[in-house]
Design a protein that fits this description.
By secondary structure, the protein is an alpha/beta fold. The protein has two domains: about 130 residues, Enolase-like, domain 1, CATH 3.30.390.10; about 220 residues, Alpha-Beta Barrel (TIM Barrel), CATH 3.20.20. It has 14 helices and 16 strands. The strands form four sheets. It has a seven-stranded parallel β-sheet with strand order 7-8-9-10-11-12-13. A four-stranded antiparallel β-sheet has the order 5-4-1-16. Strands 6-15-14 form a three-stranded antiparallel β-sheet, with helices on one face. β2 and β3 form a beta hairpin. The radius of gyration is 20 Å and the shape is globular. The model has no long low-confidence stretch (mean pLDDT about 95).
Length: about 375
């Protein structure tokens, strides 16, 4: 062992958002809580990680903080930070589930590895196949007039992908919002995300109405656990179905492909457990002929920088990403050099490690607790 983990600091932070955002699984109206992880080594290197759990996916920031503090910190202290696979095996044995906590640890270890090698993380993962990623922005403001104005402005700036959050305001309102966007911006790559907001009983009738508006895909129309009904929808509709909440990891991806529950899948580091699990999930999806997409929970610039590094190395990730939180959703992030999201694309960081710079004042201002 050439280095060892000397100190792990955990910060529970609360970040205000610019406007309320509604989804099929609920509304966030004021702020989101995240956990920021720093891992410091005996050689003087510091790696940064971030967990942004969201209750519909199984955790909240407080449960993630408890998992990091009580289960993961003890197995990491004193260990070699360069042995990333071994460290993640230690974490897997220390506690079941908690993918957000494990993802935060893993990205901090990769940040350290990149700093030590003076290379970006994507170079350590085999090299980037793209240096920009098409950006999808989610239409989720309960005030649709504000969202429509925002969509027009973003389209004028070069954005071509918008994903409309549906399933929270009634079917007629969903169709009205989608039609307004299609009429106002006919060249738009328009996508739909129900966040599990429909019932199997009448989902097919509703989605046939939605199909008339020519969405690129329809994401997770039914709740997790209704995969047989999802497969029936995928078979009946011409529009591709994207799986999100139904596919957390590579094992679930294998079952999803076997059962034909969808046509493509959203990969989130916090959902699957980190960079390694994301690459495994994408490999199974690629073998099944499913293109992949870079999804998010409520991550800021640390976690999304890590995700951008991963996406840049995966040829099968052809559906873009939704890494807009630092630029368009959070009032202030804790990263000084906000992940560049402009002109319809996210630029992959190219500095050593994750390639980020932390804003100490912003981090201090948003900190609720330190462990």
């Amino acid at each position: 062992m050439t280095d060892r983990i000397d100190l792990i600091t955990l910060r529970l932070i609360e970040s205000r958002i610019r406007n309320a955002r509604s989804h099929g699984s609920g509304t966030i109206s004021r702020a989101v809580r995240r956990v920021i992880v720093t891992i410091a080594t005996a050689d003087g290197l510091t790696g940064w990680g971030e967990a942004a759990p969201w209750a519909p996916f199984g955790n909240v920031a407080e449960t993630t903080l408890a998992a990091l503090d009580g289960a993961l910190r003890p197995v990491l202290l004193g260990a070699d930070p360069a042995a990333i696979t071994a460290r993640m095996e230690d974490c897997a044995h220390a506690i079941a589930f908690h993918p957000e906590a494990k993802a935060a640890v893993e990205m901090a270890l990769w940040d350290i590895a990149g700093q030590r090698a003076n290379a970006p993380v994507h170079a350590l993962l085999g090299g980037a196949v793209r240096d920009t990623i098409p950006l999808s922005f989610s239409i989720a403001d309960p005030d649709f007039a504000a969202d429509l104005a925002r969509a027009r402005e973003m389209f004028a700036q070069g954005h071509r992908i918008l994903k409309v959050k549906t399933g929270f305001a009634g079917h007629a309102e969903d169709l009205r919002r989608l039609a307004a966007l299609r009429d106002a911006l006919p060249e738009l790559d328009l996508r739909v995300d129900y966040n599990q907001g429909l019932d199997p009983f009448d989902a097919l009738v509703r989605l046939r109405d939605v199909e008339r508006l020519r969405p690129t895909f329809i994401e997770q129309p039914l709740p997790r656990g209704q995969e047989r009904a999802m497969a029936a929808l995928a078979a009946a509709l011409d529009t591709p179905i994207m799986a999100d909440e139904s596919v957390y990891d590579a094992t679930e991806m294998l079952r999803a492909a076997r059962d034909g529950i969808a046509d493509c899948v959203s990969i989130k580091l916090g959902k699957c457990g980190g960079i390694g699990p994301a690459r495994a999930l994408d490999a199974v999806a690629a073998a099944a002929g499913w293109p992949t997409y870079g999804g998010t929970l409520w991550e800021g610039g640390i976690a999304l920088a890590a995700a951008a590094h991963v996406l840049s190395t995966l040829p099968n990730m052809t559906l873009g990403c939704e890494f807009y939180m630092p630029s368009y959703a959070l009032a202030h992030d804790v990263v000084a050099d906000v992940l560049q999201a402009s002109g319809g694309f996210v630029r992959v960081p190219d500095g050593p490690g994750l390639g980020i710079t932390i804003d100490p004042a912003a981090l201090e201002a948003q900190t609720v607790a330190v462990a």
